[in-house]
Prior knowledge:
- Helix content is 36%, strand content 20%.
- The protein contains 13 helices and 15 strands.
- It has helices at 10-16, 66-79, 92-99, 121-127, 157-164, 174-177, 196-206, 222-230, 241-245, 267-272, 288-293, 295-315, 322-335, and strands at 20-24, 27-31, 55-61, 83-87, 106-109, 134-140, 142-145, 154-156, 187-191, 217-219, 235-239, 252-253, 255-257, 262-263, 279-286.
- β3 (55-61), α2 (66-79) and β4 (83-87) form a beta-alpha-beta unit.
Amino acid sequence: MTISITRPIAALALIGAVALSACSGSGASTAPSTAASSAPTTAASTTPSGAPLTGNIVIDGSSTVLPISEAVAEDFKAANSGVDVSVKESGTGGGFKKFCLDETDINDASRPIKADDAAEGQACTTKGVSYVQLQVAIDGLTVVVNPANTWAACMTLDQLKRIYGPDSPENLTWNQVDPTWPDEPVVRSMPGADSGTFDYFTEAVNGKADVSTTYAQQSEDDNVLVSSVAGNKNAISYFGYAYYVQNKTKVKAVAIDGGKGCIEPTETTINDGTYAPLSRPLFIYPNTGAAKESPALYEFVNFYLANAAKLATEVGYIAIPESLAAQQLANWNSAVPQ
């Protein structure tokens, strides 16, 4: 499914223009992310000259970024039959745990790495795993209800907190969220605790990451969340925009009032930043040390950056601005010079 690309505004681009990050035995370091005027807007060609590429590339992490990485891997393998690319999902946090133990080559992430976390940044430092943060798309975290839900067309952040906040009661009813809504149970589901989507939502809505109700079904598989909402009139959940786009006949998006009126998630509102505060950047974290030793991994990341805009929109996300795409390539070339 193809989504048209609309012109992003600078505000959202700045969210994603996160600095080049490296983790080594001496700790993490950060470089400025100002793009050079001479930086190209697309990455290098798919394959280097000379012998065909061979090797194995293992990708894990965010279920939100998964569709983009799967599409990139499919196209890359079609042009490079000697390279096996495995794409898995264990959530952003679960993926970082594997990545920082040097078990994977790339981590898909729907939030930045936690540099001070023992299982993430600190583990990378201890293991000597170096990395660079590269933004590949823009997402709008989407709250969804069953199509038969006729009352919750728009929700404020306070109402979302009543549903997903840490003080939300076990047997919550819709009229406890809004007195004009029915006296029916709120059937909650949400991403698992290892998910970057869970981290982002809880921080944006509840005011602190990882703080949430315990009375909701959790899953790292967004397709499970889709099914939970599609099968129950009183259900609610949230996940990445692409999963909503792919399941519009099964679930209905809720407009969000972040303080400036009800805004529906669309490619335009996500791209221009008006769908706030649930617009967010999506990243990949390649192992730069491994890429220096593996031509296949180096060329795969080049291919990813060259094709992220096209493939991200094909699976339902929003392409980053060309200037920001050029900065990601500059960051990659700086981290793994050739």
